[in-house]
Structures are given as structure tokens and as C-alpha cells.
Specification:
It is a single chain. This protein is mainly beta. The protein has helices at residues 2-8, 123-128, 248-253, and strands at 15-21, 24-30, 36-40, 45-51, 55-56, 78-79, 101-107, 113-120, 133-141, 145-153, 159-165, 168-170, 177-180, 185-189, 195-199, 203-204, 210-214, 220-225, 230-237, 241-246, 266-280, 285-296. Strands 7-8-9-10-22-19-18-13-16 form a 9-stranded antiparallel β-sheet, with no helix packed on it. Strands 6, 11, 12, 14, 15, 17, 20 and 21 form an 8-stranded antiparallel β-sheet that branches. A 5-stranded antiparallel β-sheet has the order 1-2-3-4-5. A hairpin with a 4-residue loop joins strand 18 (220-225) and strand 19. It starts with a helix and ends with a strand. The mean pLDDT is 98. Bound molecules: 6-O-phosphono-beta-D-tagatofuranose.
Length: 297
């Protein structure tokens, strides 16, 4: 299968596909700057984003499982059509554990790379969620990494969904994290039954389990690793909420696909549309974007 994809969508020195077994395919995008991303057809899941200057910029558990039906622990899981466990679907929906198809690839004149993956309803999804849809996810690699969502209602009745890009960011140590631009904000605290409360901090750090849906947050947040002197900027559009998560020691240890003491080396900041679910009329299209960029500070 990878050979056919390399013929149809491969771009010499820039976009390559590999079979990794079990029906899974990996795509590797290499930008002229030396930036590289790796992603799978499983979940349209970006598992690695690295640059020559900064090295690896996504956290991927060394014990992550790689098989259809299971979400990869780390990288950028695509959450659709349901965020979390509250609803008729498996927690976080089905998109992250299904096989997507590769649709299109491009190398722009400016040297930017893009790859589009597609997921549509199947007999299995219709049983779980009786709505026809077409979900195109376009990944663009330049000096930054952007993920563009385009979700179309291809059925003849309105549907509602919640969505998130559940991005795992690496840290030298959780004690070195400082997040700017997220607070002050109201949030729903998932460690207290989604109690709505307020965080008045402008600089947010993590020193215990945190599982919060910050509501209607600014569209730009800065994540500092104060030991590495690294700043990752997350810019989002049409994704009003931001989820902050770290399971901490006990809940982290209970995750079989999270490496031992992995909680100390990652956190998730997730651009999301949760508080106000997206309502799509027939033929309507929802578009959203997350852009990640990195620098020293
Ligand atoms: O985004 C935070 C969260 O909803 C947490 O409650 C925790 O469940 C996390 O997602 C990971 O979920 P997962 O299904 O990937 O183990």
C-alpha cells in the first residue's frame, strides 16, 4: 500500500509513506529547514514534530500502543465527535482510533508541505453515531506546524459534536512549565465533577493532577519550559476552549500505555470546542485550525 501512496502522493525528499504492519501506514514529511513530522493513518495522528534547533516537540509515550482501535498515547490525538466520556460514544469519540485515508499532498512554491487525510462515516460509526459526515484534516509543515479541520455534514439532518486536538507537549520536568495567555479564565474542573470555577492566574504552572476545560480562552497561549529556555506558541481559530491535563503520579501510573513516571515529562494543552457544541446543518462545513510554533526565550 505504501508503494502505491508513494507513487500517487509521495514527493521526493519531502513526503514518504511506509507500511508499519496491521494496516497502519506512516507518513514522514521533511521540510527544507530540516523540520520533520511523522504521522499515521491511524487517527490521522501526528506522533512526532521535530526541528534541527529544538529537537522533538511532541511527547510520545515509549509504551504507546500502535494498533487499529486504540488511540496512540502522545502526539496530537484528534478528538471527534465527542470530547470526554459524557455521551453515547466511547470516551473521546471514534476518530482517533480509526484508519483514515490519505487524500492529497502538496509542496508549495514557498517550500511548505501539506498532507490531507480523510475520515467518513462507516457502518460501524453510523451504529454508534447516526450521522453522515466527511472530515478532512490538513496538516501543514513550514517553520510552524498547523492542523486544519474541515468537517462537513453530508447527511440530511442536523448534528452536534464536540472536538479537540489533544496535543501532548514534552517537558524537561513538569516543575519547569509556565503557561502564559491561558488565564485568567473560568474553567470546568474534571477532578471535581466539572464544577465551574475560576483561575485568576496569568502564569499557570502544574504541581498536582490537573484536568480542566478553560472556557472561551484567548486564541494564543505560550508554553515555556524554563529549564530548556524553550517557548512553544499555540494559536487556535474556531476552537474557543482550552483543556489542560496532567494525570499526575497515581492516575499516570494507572495508564498502561504511559511510560513509568511519564507524568513528569508531559502535559496536554488542547484547543477545543466543548462548552458550546458545534451544530452543523446538512451541507454545512465547520472549519478550525491549530498552529504550533517554537523558539528559544
Ligand atoms: O483531555 C483530558 C482528558 O479528558 C482526561 O480526563 C483524561 O481522560 C485524558 O483526556 C486522556 O484520555 P484517554 O482516553 O486518552 O486516556
Amino acid at each position: 500500500m505504501a508503494n502505491l501512496l508513494n507513487e500517487s502522493l509521495g514527493i521526493e525528499n519531502h513526503i514518504q509513506f511506509r507500511d508499519v504492519g496491521g494496516g497502519l501506514l506512516k507518513a514522514v514529511l521533511t521540510h527544507a529547514s530540516g523540520a520533520v513530522i511523522e504521522l499515521y493513518n491511524l487517527g490521522a495522528h501526528i506522533s512526532s514534530w521535530r526541528t534541527l534547533e529544538q529537537g522533538e516537540l511532541l511527547f510520545l509515550s515509549t509504551t504507546a500502543e500502535l494498533r487499529e482501535g486504540k488511540a496512540i498515547r502522545g502526539g496530537v490525538p484528534v478528538i471527534f465527535p465527542q470530547f470526554g466520556p459524557n455521551g453515547p460514544l466511547p470516551s473521546h469519540g471514534f476518530a482517533r482510533s480509526m484508519l483514515w485515508s490519505f487524500q492529497d499532498s502538496k509542496l508549495s512554491e514557498a517550500g511548505n508541505l501539506s498532507l490531507t487525510l480523510r475520515l467518513t462515516d462507516t457502518a460501524a460509526t453510523l451504529k454508534l453515531w447516526p450521522h453522515k459526515f466527511l472530515f478532512d484534516l490538513r496538516i501543514e509543515l513550514s517553520s510552524s506546524l498547523s492542523v486544519n479541520l474541515e468537517i462537513t455534514n453530508t447527511g440530511n439532518s442536523e448534528f452536534t459534536f464536540t472536538t479537540a486536538l489533544h496535543t501532548y507537549f514534552p517537558l524537561s520536568d513538569i516543575s519547569h512549565l509556565c503557561i502564559l495567555g491561558l488565564g485568567p479564565a473560568d474553567f470546568l474542573d474534571n477532578t471535581r465533577g466539572l464544577l465551574r470555577t475560576h483561575d485568576d492566574r496569568t502564569e499557570i504552572s502544574i504541581g498536582a493532577e490537573v484536568d480542566r476545560i478553560y472556557l472561551s480562552t484567548p486564541d494564543k497561549a505560550e508554553m515555556l519550559d524554563t529549564q530548556r529556555r524553550r517557548k512553544i506558541v499555540l494559536e487556535k481559530h474556531q476552537l474557543p476552549d482550552s483543556v489542560l491535563w496532567n494525570p499526575w503520579k497515581e492516575k499516570g501510573a494507572a495508564l498502561k500505555d504511559l511510560e513509568p513516571d511519564g507524568y513528569q515529562r508531559f502535559f496536554c494543552l488542547e484547543a477545543a470546542a466543548i462548552e458550546k457544541p458545534v451544530v452543523l446543518a446538512p451541507a454545512a462545513v465547520f472549519r478550525a485550525e491549530q498552529i504550533l510554533s517554537v523558539s528559544d526565550f
